[in-house]
Structure formats: structure tokens, C-alpha cells
Design goal:
This protein has 208 residues and is mainly beta. The protein has one domain: Porin, CATH 2.40.160.200. Helices cover 7% and strands 39% of the residues. The protein is built from one helix and 14 strands. The strands form two sheets. A twelve-stranded antiparallel beta barrel has the order 1-2-3-4-5-6-7-8-9-10-11-14. Strands 12-13 form a two-stranded antiparallel sheet.
């Protein structure tokens, strides 16, 4: 497991790979259940289109927690998500590769976007800690647009290319399963663990 940057890509938002096996060459469809498999514990359980367990989050027992771990099906830590500080004026979270330890550098930072003056659908901006800042270009590497409470939002890179989309889960066209079960579609070349890590952050920034 390692973080990898593809330097030959022309995109400003370079693609993060938490694990090579989690970045497919085709569109990946996942079902996200906003519930842990562990009894009386909040979290997430994520399945692929064949019903196989892909990711799990079951290490927090309240709506808000300072540290959350995204694991694979076997329980190995892929990402550790940590709140920057309760004292910070901005709602920010940092993502670390694997298990967190003191002195470890973050992989990315997510900042909630709030604007009292200008209406915006942008929920959050993502800053990759390895990215070089370019003059005259957007400072963020990814952004999230849409409505988290409705489980309807899109993750885009800095070139406005769609990375992943979340939509409510429907069993039939007229039946929606509710906010605790939703579809996650990840486009080719983007790491599913990174995308799922962003969803975990959004769930903490905008609990519902």
C-alpha cells in the first residue's frame, strides 16, 4: 500500500492512489450503507456490484469523532481521517495514509466551504499536500458540489472533470431506499479509497 502520483498526467489535479488495486480502468459502481457491521457502532459499509465487502468504517460510536479510520474488507487501515482542531475557525479534516502516528504528514486536507454572501453548491474543497501551487490556477485540487443531505453530489477535479458521483439508491424507479443507502460511482483511474475517504469527511462536516 502506498501513495502514488502519476507525473505524466497533464491534469492539474494529480490522481491519488492509496492502493493500486483500488484504481480501476473502468467505471466502478459501489453501494454505500451508512451503518457499521459492528453492533451499536456508527460507520460505513461499502459493497461492490457483486455484493462483496470493499470498505468499512466502524471505529466511532458517536456522530462526531476526532479520528476515523477507513479500512478494507480485512480490517487493514487505508486512510486515517483526523479533525484539524475543534478550536479552528474553519471546519477542516486531514487524511493520512494508513494508520496515523505522530509526525506523519497528511495526504490531503478537506475544508468545508461556507458563504453567507454568495450562494454556492460547493460543499468542500480538497487540497493535496503534495501538489505544487501554480500561479493563476485554482489552489484546490478537488471540490465537492451538490447536496449531502440528499445524497446527491459530485466530486470534481480542478479541471472540472468528474471524479465520482453519489446518488440515492433506488430499487425501482419509484422507490428510494433513503439517506442511509446510496450509490457511489467512481470514474476510471481514480482511487476508490480516496473518494470514500472524502465521503467520510463530508459525513462528519455535515452530519445528518
Amino acid at each position: 500500500m502506498h501513495a502514488k502520483i502519476h507525473p505524466h498526467e497533464p491534469e492539474l489535479s494529480r490522481r491519488v492512489v492509496v492502493d493500486d488495486k483500488l484504481s480501476n480502468s473502468s467505471v466502478t459502481a459501489l453501494t454505500v450503507w451508512r451503518k457499521s457491521l459492528v453492533f451499536s457502532c456508527n460507520g460505513f459499509t461499502v459493497f461492490d456490484s457483486s455484493g462483496n465487502l470493499v470498505f468499512r468504517v466502524d471505529n466511532y460510536a458517536s456522530d462526531l469523532k476526532d479520528e476515523i479510520v477507513l479500512m478494507d474488507a480485512a480490517g487493514m487501515a487505508l486512510l486515517t481521517i483526523r479533525r484539524k482542531s475543534w478550536l479552528s475557525l474553519q471546519n477542516q479534516w486531514k487524511g493520512f495514509l494508513g494508520e496515523f502516528r505522530d509526525g506523519k504528514k497528511p495526504l490531503f486536507v478537506v475544508r468545508r466551504v461556507t458563504s453567507l454572501l454568495i450562494p454556492t453548491k460547493t460543499l468542500a474543497e480538497v487540497y493535496m499536500c503534495s501538489s505544487a501551487k501554480r500561479k493563476g490556477k485554482p489552489q484546490f485540487d478537488y471540490r465537492v458540489e451538490g447536496y449531502y443531505a440528499k445524497r446527491s453530489f459530485t466530486i470534481l477535479n480542478s479541471l472540472n472533470k468528474v471524479v465520482a458521483e453519489v446518488k440515492p439508491k433506488q430499487v425501482r424507479s419509484e422507490i428510494t431506499l433513503g439517506g442511509d443507502v446510496f450509490n457511489l460511482t467512481v470514474n476510471p483511474g481514480y482511487d476508490q479509497a480516496f473518494v470514500m475517504g472524502l465521503i467520510v469527511v463530508l459525513d462528519q462536516m455535515m452530519p445528518s
